[in-house]
Amino acid sequence: MYRHPFRVLFRLLYFIGGCLYDWLRARGIKPGPGEFQKRAVWLKSSSAAALKRIGFGLPELRDIPPVDLIVCNHLSYLDIVVLASRIPAAFVSKAEVRNWPLLGAMATTGGTVYIRRERRADVHAASDAIRSRSVDGVPVVIFPEGTSSGGDSVLPFHSSLLDPAAKGGWRILPLAIAYDLDEGNPADEVCYWKDMTFFPHFLNLLSKKRVSARIKVGQPVKAIADRKELTEILYREVCRLHADLKTSSPALGGPR
To answer: pLDDT tens for residues 235-252?
Structure first.
């Protein structure tokens, strides 16, 4: 059984109640002009509140320049919640997240684009959905590794979701994310990878006194038409940011 069972129970109930309230609050968002902007703003405030409910320290993040696309390394389902809490944006996620309790409903309400990378039709549909959100003035966050890892290194990037950016000459912002944990190893208990399953992982996370994230922001990159070369440029930059995070000393701070 998890350590600190009362902490787990309190946070779980607080999280469920708060997320249900936030989800009901978003029911008034209707399709039409500005829809995705409203969804991104809702997701930002809801994600920040959700992280505070589970004792998660919100990361410091300087002002994000106007961009069309954001690329980041991928460690956990928490990546979306953490980045959404600081940046009003839409996200691209694996299709399974749609069916996750509460988090799936919040991701869908926030305008998340779902994809099954093994299906070429899904990749094309995702590219169209990414364009629609960009047209609405909302940056889209993608995780080009295509899967999560334990954070030891950045996995090779896939280029398919960069197609709209390459064709449109978009401005792209590279980011890197890392996690710090008061009790335990982030690779084993915060990162979500290998054969982990959601609910046991999430309950264990709730048992932790404090989890926090650090985000390293790079300089915007102007997309070039050669998608493969663009992918390599972004990969090298995210690797550089990731290396900076690994060598910097963790700074665990309280929720802000």
So the answer is: 999 999 999 999 985 543
This prediction has a pTM of: 0.92
d(CA 4, CA 12): 12
SS3 annotation, the chain: CCCCHHHHHHHHHHHHHHHHHHHHHHHHCCCCCCHHHHHHHHHHHHHHHHHHHCCEECCCCCCCCCCCEEEECCCCCHHHHHHHHHCCCEEEEEHHHHHCCCHHHHHHHCCCEEECCCCHHHHHHHHHHHHHHHHCCCCEEECCCCCCCCCCCCCCCCCHHHHHHHHHCCEEEEEEEEEEECCCCHHHHCCCCCCCCHHHHHHHHHCCCCEEEEEEECCCEECCCCHHHHHHHHHHHHHHHHHHHHHCCCCCCCCC
Lowest mean pLDDT among 19-33, 168-182, 190-204, 228-242: 19-33
Q: Which amino acid is at 52?
A: K
Does the domain made of 5-247 have the CATH classification 3.40.1350? no
Which residues are paired to 113 by β-bridges?
Answer: 92
Tokens of 41: 């703003």
Kind of pairing between the strands at 221-222 and 171-181: antiparallel
The rounded radius of gyration (Å) of the Cα atoms in the chain is 17
Domain residue limits, the chain:
5-247
Give me the residues paired with residue 217 across strands: 175
pLDDT in tens, 104-121: 889 999 999 999 877 777
Band the pLDDT of 33: cuts 50, 70, 90: confident
Per-residue pLDDT tens over the stretch 165-180: 999 999 999 999 999 9
